[in-house]
Specification:
Layout lengths: L2 E2 L1 E5 L3 E4 L1 E2 L2 E2 L1 E2 L2 H10 L47 H20 L5 E7 L5 E9 L6 E8 L3
Antiparallel strand pairs: 1-6, 2-3, 4-5, 7-8, 8-9
């Protein structure tokens, strides 16, 4: 099974579809699934503070029709866009990413998913994701994005 290869650019610019000589490039679907899971805006919880102080809770409208209310697309990483670079914010980034990727384990795509959040340099949030798939080597992804604060 393959999917259109999606490449993450940044939180502000989002992701793009990669092209090759024949048109749209393909991948095995895992990288695209990870990018969509991490960088699609999940609806904010009722007690989340919206970064711009507004009321827009974002999220995908289709989540309103899921039979399982906990089954939602995306992550709440967007809530961190104006946060300071503190250890508790890194902990929240890790938690948000783990929650967004939990479906990989629940659906049997992966045996485990490990996330490390870091500040590789000033103004940058780094996420390192390691996914252990059944009977396959660990696949690692690294994402970095600039904090606006």
């Amino acid at each position: 099974m393959s999917d259109i290869k999606t490449v993450f650019i940044s939180f502000e610019q989002g992701a793009v579809y990669l092209q090759d000589a024949l048109g749209l490039a393909e991948d095995d679907g895992l990288e695209t699934a990870v990018i969509i899971s991490l960088f699609t805006d999940r609806r904010a919880e009722d007690d989340d503070v919206i970064p711009d102080g507004g009321q827009e809770r974002r999220g995908w409208w289709g989540d309103d029709f899921n039979e399982d209310a906990a089954d939602r697309i995306g992550s709440r990483l967007w809530l961190l866009s104006r946060e300071k670079q503190l250890s508790e914010v890194l902990n929240r980034a890790r938690q948000y990413a783990e929650k967004a990727l939990r479906w990989l384990i629940d659906d049997g795509v992966a045996e485990s998913v490990d996330v490390v959040a870091s500040i590789p340099r000033a103004g940058v949030l780094g996420l390192q994701v390691a996914i252990q798939r059944p009977s396959e080597p660990v696949i690692r992804y690294q994402f970095e994005s600039f904090w606006s604060a």
